[in-house]
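stage 2 :: seqdesign
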């Protein structure tokens, strides 16, 4: 009983001491917040709510179990059965190593086949050496076909540029007299058959006249031949003709015989 009185005395003393030590200063303002409790509309306590929640969870679990039992069992595939059987079988280290090696070899084979391509590609690759080789012209045409084709405007401009280059390079050719004559003859209108006949007759007549002249020349006398020869010689100048004429005159003067009297007079003189 004394202990209860002592406890009842000490508790207010400790509370007062604590209140005295935690007394706020003059400037401090103490706001005391008290918890607010709201009344549940259902009128249930916390324990009742917890039990109700657990009951709902249990009911949902039981319902799920019932639905699982009612569903038909799904048949497992052969792969699933194999995996289940493999899980039950204890695989040794050697078996695991052999299985790993088989998987690696299989992957290498698949990788090599993937690099080699299909059967058609391997056949073409093996027989590429036996295939006929393309010529230089075929390779050039193939390369040109692979290039982007120019438009019609680009082709026209290229042709015009090529023509301009050719015109600049080609120098004008000077035609000879014979070439000009032949071009003139080709440009002239072609003669008719009558004109050709008359031209042939004129040529024949000219040949006949030439033959007559040659025959007449062959029948000339000696005097005519001499005159023709003299005419063919170079003609003397006027001075030469005058000197020859003086010589002829002197030769034509008669010579008088000198008498004895003439000789005496010439000596005395």
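stage 2 :: out
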């Amino acid at each position: 009983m004394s202990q209860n009185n002592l406890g009842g005395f000490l508790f207010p003393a400790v509370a007062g001491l604590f209140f005295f030590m935690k007394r706020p200063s003059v400037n401090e303002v103490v706001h005391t917040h008290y918890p607010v409790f709201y009344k549940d509309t259902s009128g249930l306590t916390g324990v009742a709510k917890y039990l109700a929640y657990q009951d709902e969870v249990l009911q949902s679990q039981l319902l799920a179990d019932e639905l699982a039992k009612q569903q038909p069992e799904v048949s497992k595939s052969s792969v699933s059965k194999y995996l289940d059987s493999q899980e039950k079988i204890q695989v040794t280290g050697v078996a695991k190593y052999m299985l790993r090696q088989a998987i690696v070899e299989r992957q290498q084979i698949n990788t090599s086949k993937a690099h080699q391509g299909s059967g058609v590609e391997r056949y073409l690759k093996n027989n590429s050496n036996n295939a006929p080789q393309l010529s230089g012209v075929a390779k050039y045409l193939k390369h040109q076909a692979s290039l982007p084709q120019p438009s019609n405007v680009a082709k026209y401009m290229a042709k015009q540029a090529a023509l301009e280059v050719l015109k600049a390079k080609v120098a004008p050719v000077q035609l000879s007299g014979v070439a000009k004559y032949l071009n003139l003859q080709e440009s002239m209108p072609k003669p008719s058959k009558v004109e050709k006949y008359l031209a042939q007759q004129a040529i024949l007549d000219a040949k006949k006249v030439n033959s007559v002249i040659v025959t007449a020349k062959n029948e000339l006398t000696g005097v005519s031949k001499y005159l023709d020869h003299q005419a063919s010689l170079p003609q003397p100048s006027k001075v030469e003709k005058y000197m020859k004429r003086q010589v002829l005159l002197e030769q034509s003067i008669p010579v008088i015989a000198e008498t004895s009297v003439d000789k005496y007079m010439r000596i005395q003189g």
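stage 3 :: structure notes
- The chain is about 70% helix and 0% strand.
- The radius of gyration is 76 Å.
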